Every structure is written in structure tokens, then in C-alpha cells.
Amino acid sequence: MSRIKTAERIFISLLFAGALFIAAESRGAEQSHEASLSVKADPDRNHDRKQTVEQKGNNTVTTVVDEEAETCSLEIEVENSSNQSDSYQLEWYFIAKRISANGDEVLVIFDSGKMPITLDAGASAVKKAVSKPFIFTVKDVDVVNSNGVRAGLGLSRQIRGGDEYAGYIVLVRAAGDILQKDSNSSRFLNDEWLAQCDKFSKITPAAKKKKKKK
């Protein structure tokens, strides 16, 4: 009788070990993520000019404001290159060249977005992302006195500033890891910019709005 019980215990142990092995194999398969990525960018620019003429004492003040507004549309295709259904996170970042009134220039992440994507094995999906408008303004102030002489001492001046479109970064992640990345420039795919993307994506929408108001 004890031999039968021992044999039953061994059989049950083997079944249990086999189940654990199959589960481990299944988990290993789920952790294998593959994807391909292609991106097409389509920038669109609009120009607007406004002019005003005012009489201030003996001076005629002419103000011309030129505004460049540019948006960028991305057509993003993600394909599941594996042999099983998988879920991804698609992220995109738009980069601006920010120019201050004193002429300083710096590259910054201007806008971003993300969305989850689930694809069957071998399937693909095309998504579209559109940036907020990049606004760059040139303001010319021309002051002329009653004798037709252009005033100096800072009265006649030009003020330049705003954001110009500089590029984009698109990432495909799975289980937190970057599977694919694409950009209009290889310099935006280095570790420094990827770290900036991580930092920017962790800012809550409320914090972004609060920062913008300042």
C-alpha cells in the first residue's frame, strides 16, 4: 500500500513540475517583445502680418508684427514583428528651438503625447499625432518725428522671440523598455534626449498647464 502511495506522490510531483515548466515557458514567451516603426513628418507653416500706425506727440509710430505659426503632423506606423499578440506604448515628442528676446537659443521639448496599442501577431497600425502651434514673432517698431527723421535711443527697435519647430522623437515601448525609436535627427536619439523624454512624460498635465501660465 505504501508503495502505491509513494508512486502516486511521485506522479503528482511530476505533474506539478511539468505544469510549472509550461507556465515558465509561457511567461518567457510573453516577455519576448518585437516591433518595427516608421514615421513620416509633415510640417505646415503659416505667416501673418499686422501693421498699426499711431501718432504720439510729434512722432509717428509704425508697428509691424510678423508671426510664423508652424505645426507638425506625424504619420506613425507600428508593426508587431513577433509571432504573438502584444501591447505597446507609443510616445511622441516635438522639439522646439526657443529664442528669447535677448537672442539666446535653446532646444526644448515643446509638446508630447502617448497612447497604448495592442496588435495581433504580424499586424500593424497607423496613428497620427499633431503638435501644438510653434509661434515665432518678429516685432518692428519704427518711430519717425515730424521732420521725417527716424528716432533712435531704443525708440525704433526690433523684438524677436518665440518657438521654432526643430524636430520630433517617436518611441515604441513594451514592458517599460524602448523597442524602437525614430527622429528627424540622430542627435535627438542619444541618451541625453531620451532622458529628457522620460522626465517630460512624468510631468502631470496639471503641472504642465501651471508652468505654461507662468
Please outline the helices and strands:
Elements lengths: L1 H29 L4 E22 L2 E22 L5 E14 L5 E15 L4 E7 L3 E11 L12 E18 L2 E7 L7 H11 L3 H9 L1
Antiparallel strand pairs: 1-2, 2-5, 2-6, 3-4, 3-7, 6-7, 7-8
Describe this structure in words.
The chain has 214 residues and is an alpha+beta fold. The protein has one domain. Helices cover 23% and strands 54% of the residues. The protein has helices spanning 2-30, 191-201, 205-213, and strands spanning 35-56, 59-80, 86-99, 105-119, 124-130, 134-144, 157-174, 177-183. Strands 1, 2, 3, 4, 5, 6, 7 and 8 form an 8-stranded antiparallel β-sheet that branches. A hairpin with a 2-residue loop joins β7 (157-174) and β8. The chain is elongated, with a radius of gyration of 29 Å. The model has no long low-confidence stretch (mean pLDDT 85).
What integer value in Å does the Rg equal?
29 Å
Order of helices and strands: HEEEEEEEEHH
Please state roughly what percent of the residues sit in beta strands, choosing from under 5%, 5-15%, 15-25%, 25-35%, 35-45% or over 45%.
over 45%
Mean pLDDT: 85
Helical content, roughly?
10-25%
Categorize the overall geometry.
elongated
Biggest β-sheet strands, sense, barrel? 8 strands, antiparallel
What is the domain tally? 1
Output the number of helix runs.
Answer: 3
Give the end-to-end Cα distance, rounded to a whole number of Å: 83 Å
Q: Which consecutive residue ranges, at least 5 long each, have pLDDT under 50?
A: none
What is the SS-derived class? alpha+beta
Strand segment count: 8
